[in-house]
Write a structure and sequence with these properties.
The structure holds three protein chains of three kinds. By secondary structure, chain B is an all-alpha fold. Chain B has twelve helices and no strands. Classes of the chains: A mainly alpha, B mainly alpha, C alpha/beta.
Chain lengths: ~325, ~270, ~450
Amino acid sequence: MSTVLAGQETVAATGSATAVTQPGRRRRLSRKWRRALVAYAFLLLPVGFYAVFMILPWIQTIVLSFYNWDGIGTKTGAGFSNFVHVFSDPQLRVAVVHAFELMLYFCVIPIVSALFLTALITGPRRPHWTFTRAVLFLPQVLPAVAVAVIWQWMYGENGFINQALRWVGLGRVAQPWLASFTWAFPAVGLVGSWITLGLCLAFFIAGAQRIPIELYEAIATDGGGRLRQFRWVTLPHLRGEIVIAATVTAISAMSAFDIVFVMTGGGPGVASIVPGLLIYQLAFTAFNVGQASALAVVLSLLVLLVITVLRLAGRERS
Amino acid sequence: MTTRLEWLGTRAVMLFALLSIVIPLLVIATTALEPPGSLNTGLSWPAHPHWGNFVSAWSVAGFSTLMRSSVIVCIGVVPVGVVLATCAGYAFGTIDFPGKRVIFAGLMIGLAVPYEAIVIALYYNLKSVGLTNTYLSVILPLIGAFMPFGAFWMRNHFAHTPVALIEAAQMDGASDLTILTKVLLPNSRAALSTLAVLYFTWTWNQFLLVLIMIQDPARETAPLGLALFVGQYTTNLPLLSAGTLIVIAPVMIVYMFFQRQFIAGLAHGAIKG
Amino acid sequence: MKAKGRSAARTAAWLGAIGSSVALVAMGSVAPAWASAHARTPQSATAGTAFPTGPVTLTLATEDTSKLTPALIAGFEKLHPNVKIVQQTTSYTDYLPKINLELASSTPPDLSEVVTLETAVKDHLLLNLDPYAAQYGWTKSISPYALDEYRMGSNLVAGNGPLYAVSSGFDLTGIFYNKTLMQKLGISGPPQTLADLNADLAKAKAAGYTGLELAAEDGHGAFLVQQVADDYSSPAPVNNWIFGVKGSNINIPAVRTGANQLATWAKDGYINADASADALTQAVSEFNAGKALFINDGNWDTWEYQGGLKSAVGFAAFPAAQPGGRYTAMVGGTAGYAISAKTKYPQVAAAFLNYSVSAAVAPAVFAQGNLPNSLSGITAAPGSLNAEYIKAWGEIVKSDGLYGYFANAFPTANTAWTQQTEELIGGKTTAQAALSTVQAGWAQAHG
């Protein structure tokens, strides 16, 4: 989540302060270590849980990616063959490409829409829009499985989407969307947009409310309209929030599982297959634990890569 | 003139955005009231609402069992998770110690790792100690998985407490535990309740981990039960819709009461750090 | 509905290469090839075993959601009051991935339904049942063909080697039709040939109905491909491929004909437009709602159709390729159970298996719409689905037309078939390309 970005600078700052050497070092050191022991005691269980149930299995997954294993019998060394497979198997490649395409739906569309809404409802005047914000945020807290079930029927042959199209006289484009090679993937992706829009909007409204009103007034004095206010005040001030929103939504895009699993199962064909689903299938249906792990490792690296790029982009401009 | 138009335009756009969120929920709510066995009909108000669908869905999908499992898992995760996050937050937020930066950064990586990359080895680890197919196989990993956010959240909270408050207590010879429980926590109700509410929602909504760990239908949680219910009873859409609403209901209710905390926790929390 | 009905991979392949003996046995009789007067009663069969008298609890893992398995358990517990069998039912989607891992765990279920044998046999997780087969005389009371599906050698090829499971009966596939709709469209009876079928489908389409309701998302596209392919191929090449016999290939003219037929039906609009997003349950409900003329399914969904269309539902063998041609079906064991290699009570588990295949349970099996191992003494009400199953069964056996399921050929076969048939329906691939992709998956699994 976003906190990766935001968190570390603060720690870096406090951390370096303690490193300064000062007179009376010996006594301070012992006190410092006493405090350290207290800190370690407080961290023992939290970090222990995290290490045993997150870091350890993650490292083990990396190790498993270098073996051939059916999950039951003996492991045999596989070298890099599982990774070669990830990049040569067309199905696995399609999944990785889809992970990036999902970022269009999980990040780009919601961020652009949320920025548009933010531009409309913030600025020099500050109504709270509490109700609207609360409703738009709602999909973020609903179980993804339930969201997927709801949208599965929305997209159905006689579902609401087709019903609405018929109402406005577009009945001829009505179709079972999730059965279409062309539309199944965008349909699933748009559910991602539906989920993340409210979160992006909440980020941006929170950020926009901290912008000094005088900045808007200055532009207004110069004869600038809403567009210029947005371009020269709102947008630059929201840079940090945009990077955070992009990071949070990018992670959820690349590790999407629940909605694809329930809505299409990756179909039709492999039209909506994503890495998360393939990892599950490879590990628990095909019993190809090595390949599943290799794909999981590649996915982790891609997520870290995307986050790093976003972070650099955010830093460079500010 | 233009402002009037602007105002109208803004309202129209916001209304459209609202409808796009509300309509899918309305569709499912009206479908849940259709006569049992109806096919997908989009949005239409049923002539004779069948409230009995909720009762049938509850018994057919075995929601008593599913809800019990979900509640047990939440009870296992939320209190322990919040207490441990508080401990971690106290250490990170109020004490300077060697390795702080590295340990904290290591925790934060956990926010970025896709959970798919964890569950494979996690499954085999828990299987080797005979824990799969138990509530613990969901509870323990979730406590670990939520720790990065929890530690981050509580650290931010404690880091913003006035240092003087802590120093004064230390002068009085108070132990760290006393400072935490007597000085800091009384001022932390908002932060703690937000964290608890978020933990509850994430636990309730968890799917992948339960899908992999739990085989026994008696220990499946509500979202998993819903997914499997859909596979087995698509014949009866109103029943399924009712089931979906039942699964959504607890988080909806919690959200209605705590929506400010939700938004503060997820949106503001991330920025403040 | 049985959850396992959602997928073609629901049971292991039932029959091996059918020898000429089937035709011999079947001649003049509609009884199953292995119907035998030698079915033992459980009492006589258990005699001579060291059967424990103290309380015994066995766990049984299954994905059978019908009333059959509970009925078997209840019957057995009545015979042996000291035995308790705890049934753990998991949905098919969950069962398939987990069962081998469960069997490999420190607390495996004593009895488990077989879906695929390979992993379990490779890692020695199941008990070799040959001694019990000899003791209880299963090799005499059950047709060798019914047992072949559950045999697997150390080369991991099915059809030969030690026996690992037995089943209380079997399922078969065919065409369910809507009698009311048929009458409305002026169709006199179920299609006898593919040409009849195509003519009926055209009539349905002209009247605005779906011809063939298809749940391609659940892998039933492979059902249609195989039904047509089976009409054009003798059982040996298909069943060898399913069993994993070295050198087999699915990319043969008969199967390409089936794949092309599926693509043509989709192109002609004879199949529901949402096939690739349709789960079996959904397809069944749309068929029951009178939207479609036919659905290609198996008798495991008997309750669904009887409950939905009541007396308006009919069943027939899938049409033959040409007049006087062969009738074929996919036939598989209904919930075949195996015994864990680690069980503490192998003799009790084996006694349960023996009870489940005995003539004593035949009525209970038949009542579920499944065909029991022995049809002797079984009667079905005229015009009922059960009567039509027996009629179709006779035609199929006479034609030497019993085949396993494509989707059981290797662990990920169902996924491969689902993807490839969806691509065929969407016009995204050719029969040739689809089948070579499936074959590549087979080759990876069977080497």
